[in-house]
Amino acid sequence: xxxxxxxIGNTTLNDSVSIEDKAYYASITEVNDSLGNKAFDKLGxxxxxxxxxxxxxxxxxxxxxxxxxxxxxxxSRNIVNTFMLFxxxxxxxxxxxxxxxxxxxxxxxxxxxxxxxxxxxxIQESSK
Length: 128
What we know:
- With 128 residues, the protein is an all-beta fold.
- It has a domain at 3-87.
- The chain contains no helices and 6 strands.
- The protein has strands at 3-7, 22-32, 38-43, 47-56, 61-65, 82-87.
- Strands 1, 2, 3, 4, 5 and 6 form a 6-stranded antiparallel sheet that branches.
- Strand 4 (47-56) and strand 5 (61-65) form a beta hairpin.
- It is elongated.
- The mean pLDDT is 76.
């Protein structure tokens, strides 16, 4: 395992980022907008860094297993001043909503005979 610690500076980590997400980076080209303000115009090739193994939201440091990447980075300085992004594991993160619940009360106010054919719900046990 080749773990690299990467400090995300001048910003807070995205609330959705979690352990085992895949991390990526891309170079950015800084340009000035029509008013002379700095803006980012162009995003370079997106390159996989690896799987996120630890997250410290207080310090903004993420630990990434770079050995899982198709082309592992050898030096975390390669990703300074870049745009970083992440993706979820499709095999795990395709489930329904997490952290929500519902209470349902059904009442038939019809004056004619009615039948309820089906009620269904997706119930998922949390592993935490």
